[in-house]
Amino acid sequence: MTTDRRTQLLDTALALIAEQGLRGLTHRAVQNAAGLPHGSVTYYFKTRDQLVLAVVERIIEIDRERAQPAICAALRALAAAPAQPDYQKLAELLRRWWTDSHQLLLARYELDLAGARDPAVRDAMARCGAEFRDLAELVAVQAGSPDPGFDAQVITSLVDGLMFDFVIRGPRSDAHLREGVRRALSGLHPGDEHD
Question: Which domains does the chain have, with CATH numbers?
Fold first, then answer.
């Protein structure tokens, strides 16, 4: 599969961030890692800030592509059996997604931390997080949540915690992930109490 030069540079930058953190992200490091001539990165991204913000947009693009199967499966599972979704299947989908996206997720966490100090990065990463909340809201609506916006925030926070644990500490047992998914989704039904 051929990739355009700009995308190649952004994917290389993502890999560098995952391996070395933001401190390792320079124009020179990206062009060297990509095996491209001097000035290649500067042609597309005049400043490091432009490069960082373009990396966030690339993360959003990849997340949409990789998250879609897991979210669609969650929606189908909830539609088929709203009272008792197949948590094992959902956990397996998340495990596959997070395993395939390990580098991307490391880069995301690095950028999330950078956003605590840099408002431009924080705003860009907020757009990235909004993508997940929008998808989680669809899941909450399908599950019959009386407050899908609130429940989407809760689901996102719980799944983010499971994802962080999975990526940083390594995968735990299938039972751990399945139970985490069950707990993240169990409060969505209309009969459950909301304070």
Answer: 5-186 (1.10.357.10)
